[in-house]
Amino acid sequence: MRVHVVSDVHGNAEALSRASEGADALIVLGDLLDFIDYHDHRGGIFGRLFGEDNVSAYATLRRTGTRAEMRAFVQSLWDSLDDPAAAVDEAMREQYARLFSTMAALDVPVYAIPGNVDAPALWPEFASDGVRLVDGDVVEIGGLRFGFVGGAVLPEGATPRANAVWRPHLLTREEFDERVAGLSDIDVLCSHIPPAIPELTYDVVSRTVEIGARSLLERIRAERPRWSLFGHVHQPLTARFRVEYTECRNVGHFQRTAVPYVLRW
């Protein structure tokens, strides 16, 4: 059995159309949307709505500015639009229409979960028989049991802004942990975010520690799956780490690499 696994697609439909070549199935671990493209400031939803110069200015503030400066700048951009929520909704739907039609055209079954840069409430509109939405499910593929949990964890002490134009798909720690606890008797643990292991959560380019999940690490130790597969951290300190019996693997930043991770058994 050969299964290809990708994460952090971020709008790269062209590479996604080739991701299943030679595989029996394709697993997509989230972040389908290209919201802010830090590699091509003309791309992404931000680039489409506000232009390359404003995305470049935001990227600079993200590196060197304060959180208050970033929020003020972003708010000024939203205020420049007549209906920012409608503009974002339209842009997301356009990307999802392209990405889901790409997955539906593949000649293998596709199993998908959302990342933090996704709007999973829209997914049922675009899913088809060939694209299964498996967040929170345990699915048998080739005789192995795959457990899936999507999204990311809301930072400690943070509260979602009620009137935000765009909300990333973030769960409270309790919500996320409850979903992880429902994945039992699994051979492969699939998530968008990594388990809480420093080597897997540190991004060497942005020099930030992303939030991993302690519950994923605990599930690995309890269930001892063969593999733990995830993405989210685009440039991790290490892409692989072993926890006793389990191979923990960041499957890569697919938008940039265009190369799926290959799982064989």
TrEMBL record:
<dbReference type="GO" id="GO:0016787">
    <property type="term" value="F:hydrolase activity"/>
</dbReference>
<dbReference type="InterPro" id="IPR029052">
    <property type="entry name" value="Metallo-depent_PP-like"/>
</dbReference>
<dbReference type="InterPro" id="IPR004843">
    <property type="entry name" value="Calcineurin-like_PHP"/>
</dbReference>
<protein>
    <submittedName>
        <fullName>Metallophosphoesterase</fullName>
    </submittedName>
</protein>
<dbReference type="Pfam" id="PF00149">
    <property type="entry name" value="Metallophos"/>
</dbReference>
<dbReference type="GO" id="GO:0042545">
    <property type="term" value="P:cell wall modification"/>
</dbReference>
<dbReference type="InterPro" id="IPR051693">
    <property type="entry name" value="UPF0046_metallophosphoest"/>
</dbReference>
<feature type="domain" description="Calcineurin-like phosphoesterase">
    <location>
        <begin position="1"/>
        <end position="236"/>
    </location>
</feature>
